[in-house]
Amino acid sequence: MGFFKVLGAFIAAVFVLTVLATVLQSVFVLAALSGVGARIGAGEAAGMILADLAGLAPLYGAFIALALLVAFLASALVHRVTPLPRTLVFAAAGLVAMGVMLLAMEQVFFGVQLIAGARTSAGFAAQILAGLLAGFTFAALTPGPRNNKAGAA
């Protein structure tokens, strides 16, 4: 498989995860605000989501890219030594990458979760499930090596 195909799939996975995680973070913050009585119209909600995509997503995306890079490199090794399906390995890697990244960010920043939408169990779960989707995206865009009868991969 060519380097540029893998790179393109990686960029696509980072993009999917960054956009989805940022939007989910905004939705969970909006829900929390509504839960304490704030009245937020559709226009205001859309404006907040767009502001988060413009302001939060670039830095969040950098953290996501680093987490996915480590996770996908480890996944490539895991896939070589286990009989597990490739899609499962990469999807799990995306999920774990997001979980580890969010927990590490919280530890580094004195016990405060910087991603406000991930401060609840449901918000955290939504973020890591977005990571699962990113891993699935990467796996889908980079088919594994094909084995031929000679056993070469």
Number of helices: 5
Oligomer: single chain
Number of domains: 1
Structural class: mainly alpha
Task: Tally the beta strands.
Answer: 0
Give the low-confidence spans. Answer: 147-153
Largest sheet: none
Beta strand %: under 5%
The helix content is over 70%
CA-based gyration radius: 18 Å
First-last Cα distance: 10 Å
Chain-averaged pLDDT: 93
H/E topology pattern: HHHHH
Mass-distribution shape: elongated
Short key terms for the protein model shown above:
mainly alpha; 0% strand; elongated
Description:
- The chain is mainly alpha-helical and 153 residues long.
- The chain has one domain (3-141).
- It has 5 helices and no strands.
- The protein has helices spanning 3-35, 42-55, 57-81, 86-108, 121-141.
- Helix 1 (3-35) packs across helix 2 (42-55) and helix 1 (3-35) crosses helix 3.
- The longest helix is centred in the N-terminal third of the chain and has 33 residues, at 3-35.
- It is elongated.
Quick description:
The protein is mainly α. The protein has helices at 3-35, 42-55, 57-81, 86-108, 121-141. It has one domain.
Question: Which helices and strands occur, and which strands form pairs?
Answer:
Elements: H1 3-35, H2 42-55, H3 57-81, H4 86-108, H5 121-141
